[in-house]
Amino acid sequence: MGLKFRHGVMIIVIISASMFSVSMANKDWFPAFNYTDWWSRFGNHPHNKTQQEPREIVVGGSDHWHFGYNYSDWAFKNAPFYINDTLVFKYDAPSATSFPHSVYMFKSYESFFKCDVKKAKVVASPVQGGGEGFKFVLKKWEPHFFGCGERNGFHCNNGTMKFAVFPMLRPFWQWP
Ligand SMILES: [Cu+2]
């Protein structure tokens, strides 16, 4: 009886372990999510109580917000992002020589994946990216799906102007 029970538990452990590895394999769809980061935050580590300052991050770095730059890759390389960090979207206002861009936020991963701009809400119009840029503060502990809304999703799809961010709770100790 006891042996059977233990056997059953082992099977459950194996199944959940394999499910975990499946979800790990799928984590590419959400590049900004960092598992090791979770461990450093909630694991049992000695730490000092220094709160790190929120960052202001220019989306795309010196490339700013334009057609054809791989923003998913950018988000992956610049992760982790934290709550109260500010994303700065910089793009020129529409002119004779530049294409208009904008910032939309998708409500679900599905609409983000398809660049379904009809199911997204406008967070910045084509004229809001000039000067210091449009600033978006990551206030909520939830996935944020950003994309350019221009040309009915063409910039988002073909121009790879899309990325996802899951802001983390900022650690109370110094980052190594
Ligand atoms: Cu665009």
UniProtKB/TrEMBL annotation:
Residue ranges of every copy of the Phytocyanin domain listed in the record:
55-169
**Domain of life of the organism encoding this protein:** Eukaryota
In its UniProt entry, the species of origin is given as Sphenostylis stenocarpa
User: What InterPro entries would the database entry show?
Assistant: Cupredoxin, Phytocyanin_dom
Protein name per Swiss-Prot or TrEMBL: Phytocyanin domain-containing protein
- Give the residue range of the signal peptide: 1-25
Task: List the Gene3D superfamilies.
Answer: Cupredoxins - blue copper proteins (2.60.40.420)
Keywords of this protein's UniProt record, alphabetized?
A: Signal
Keyword Signal in annotation: yes
Q: Does the keyword Signal apply?
A: yes
MF term (GO), any: electron transfer activity
> What SUPFAM superfamilies does its record include?
Cupredoxins
